[in-house]
């Protein structure tokens, strides 16, 4: 690929007006893409003075790379800057638009070129996570032999979306969303740079701050919004001087509402549901309400959220507040009945209730301990006295012998163990001391004392739920 495609300082045979017209047909974000490392903003840990990526580029000693980061943080920009800082041939493809057959042909050509002339080929593959396992596997032999230097860019977590074999043969660089100050710097540059708006529109400081905040660290989105503002201001007859500069109120009018960044199938989906869960667990009602809103406004399936809230009610609250599960199920039913957006308030009600309820994981821990017991594989038979005896044969075999119907006793309890002998005395559920579980703990203590008294009266160490002595 011709490196001049990325050199915004290259000239054409047309007039300056022709150049401006040509540039005007290209999105502002592409026109303002850095052509040198000195123009890159953000990512100081990677491209700062002693940043590893800068050092690799300066030494023209680039291994295969994976660039992982959110949209608009500079992945493609950094990959394209390779073209200007290396003697290697640079080829760019998108995993959305290229197939395995085409890539294999490209890599075979790269192999022949390297053997014939020693020229290296750098293959930039954007959205590499779009490739399936077989397609990613097809890259391995060429990367292993060094026939191509691969630069893969992805917005998704490589741990889940990129083959472990490919990860092990590349060096991973993690890019962060740009800070508002970085985005603001790009906006100011774009307003004055001849590649950008070249002073045709003026914005107040508060308007620039608003655009920088609205971008959520996405430079491409910020520049796209700036371009929208510039076109709207021109049509509106404003912003042509500092006296008529576009202010924050006008920016909000021109941009309207921008949906919050949220990918239902990607990392943001898991990150935000995790944030919601942990905010409720920490009784941070405001954070919980915020993360819920982020998900709903981003288009998340409300029933998915409802399922997670139902799970939370039992896992993190349990019997500390028995009404939590009812609240969660009612919210689910309301969402199912009303749909959106009406159902959002039912979810908000449930989330607030969860956040403000006393917390206990006693139920979760108890079930986990019991499931671990079962998973170990030693599962003794049901004691005979607990078995049903619907037939004469079963009665003859002793099924039901010794069973006492507890409601008919004076204390409503029977002095018999309901666990197998080898598990007698095992405790799985240990109630906490918050909310309703404090009352349950008192009840359990009374039950244990009752069995202890019965044991003392009968002198039978195996009576009741006490541990069996050796």
Task: Please supply descriptive tags for the structure shown above.
470 residues, mainly alpha, Rossmann fold, Helicase, Ruva Protein, domain 3, Zinc Finger, Delta Prime, domain 3, 4 domains, 5-stranded parallel sheet, 5 strands, disordered C terminus
Provide an overview of this structure.
The chain is mainly α. The chain folds into four domains: 43-174, P-loop containing nucleotide triphosphate hydrolases (Rossmann fold, 3-Layer(aba) Sandwich); 180-255, Orthogonal Bundle (Helicase, Ruva Protein, domain 3), CATH 1.10.8.60; 267-356, Zinc Finger, Delta Prime, domain 3 (Up-down Bundle); 384-458, Orthogonal Bundle (post-AAA+ oligomerization domain-like). It has helices spanning 16-24, 28-31, 44-47, 52-58, 75-81, 100-117, 133-145, 158-161, 164-168, 180-192, 205-214, 219-236, 248-255, 267-281, 285-297, 302-317, 323-338, 344-356, 362-375, 392-396, 436-458; strands at residues 65-68, 89-94, 121-126, 149-154, 171-174.
CATH architecture of the largest domain: 3-Layer(aba) Sandwich
The global form is elongated
What's the SSE pattern? HHHHEHEHEHEHHEHHHHHHHHHHHH
Helix content: 40-55%
Strand order of the largest sheet: 2-3-4-1-5
In CATH terms, what is the fold-level topology of the largest domain? Rossmann fold
Total helical elements: 21
Task: Please state the average pLDDT score.
Answer: 84
Number of strands: 5
**Span between termini:** 81 Å
As a percent range, the share of strand residues is: 5-15%
What's the short story on this structure?
With 470 residues, the protein is mainly alpha-helical. It contains 21 helices and 5 strands.
């Amino acid at each position: 690929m011709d490196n001049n495609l990325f050199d915004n300082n290259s000239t054409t045979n047309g007039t300056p007006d022709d150049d401006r017209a040509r540039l005007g047909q290209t999105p502002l974000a592409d026109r303002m893409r850095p052509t040198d490392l000195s123009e890159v903003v953000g990512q100081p840990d990677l491209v700062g003075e002693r940043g590893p990526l800068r050092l690799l580029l300066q030494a023209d000693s680039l291994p295969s790379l994976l660039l992982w980061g959110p949209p608009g943080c500079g992945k493609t920009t950094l990959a394209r800057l390779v073209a200007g800082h290396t003697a290697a041939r640079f080829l760019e493809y998108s995993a959305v638009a290229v197939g395995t057959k085409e890539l294999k042909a490209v890599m075979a050509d790269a192999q022949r070129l390297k053997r014939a002339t020693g020229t290296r080929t750098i293959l930039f593959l954007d959205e590499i996570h779009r490739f399936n396992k077989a397609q990613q596997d097809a890259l391995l032999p060429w990367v292993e032999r060094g026939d191509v230097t691969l630069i893969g860019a992805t917005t998704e977590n490589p741990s889940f979306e990129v083959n472990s074999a490919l990860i092990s043969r590349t060096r991973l660089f993690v890019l962060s969303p740009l800070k508002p100050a970085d985005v603001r710097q790009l906006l100011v540059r774009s307003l004055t740079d001849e590649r950008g708006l070249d002073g045709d529109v003026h914005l107040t400081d508060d308007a620039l701050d608003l655009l920088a905040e609205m971008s959520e660290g996405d430079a491409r989105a910020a520049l796209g919004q700036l371009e929208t503002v510039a076109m709207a201001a021109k049509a509106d007859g404003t912003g042509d001087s500092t006296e008529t500069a576009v202010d924050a109120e006008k920016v909000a009018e021109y941009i309207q509402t921008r949906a919050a960044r949220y990918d239902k199938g990607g990392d943001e989906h898991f990150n935000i549901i995790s944030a919601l869960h942990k905010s409720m667990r920490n009784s941070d009602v405001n954070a919980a309400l915020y993360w819920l809103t982020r998900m709903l406004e981003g288009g998340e399936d409300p029933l998915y959220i409802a399922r997670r809230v139902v799970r939370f009610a039992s896992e993190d609250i349990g019997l500390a507040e028995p009404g939590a599960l009812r609240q969660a199920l009612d919210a689910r039913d309301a969402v199912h009945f009303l749909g959106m957006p009406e159902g959002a308030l039912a979810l908000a009600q449930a989330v607030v209730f969860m956040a403000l309820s006393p917390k206990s994981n006693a139920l979760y821990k108890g079930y986990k301990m019991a499931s671990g017991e079962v998973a170990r594989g030693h599962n003794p038979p049901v004691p005979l006295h607990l078995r049903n005896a619907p037939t004469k044969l079963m009665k003859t075999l002793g099924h039901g012998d010794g069973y006492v119907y507890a409601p008919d006793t004076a204390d409503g309890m029977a002095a018999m163990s309901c666990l197998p002998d080898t598990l007698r005395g095992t405790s799985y559920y240990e109630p906490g001391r918050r909310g309703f579980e404090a009352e349950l703990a008192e009840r359990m203590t009374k039950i244990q004392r009752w069995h202890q008294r019965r044991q003392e009266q009968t002198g039978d160490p195996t009576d009741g739920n006490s541990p069996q002595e050796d």
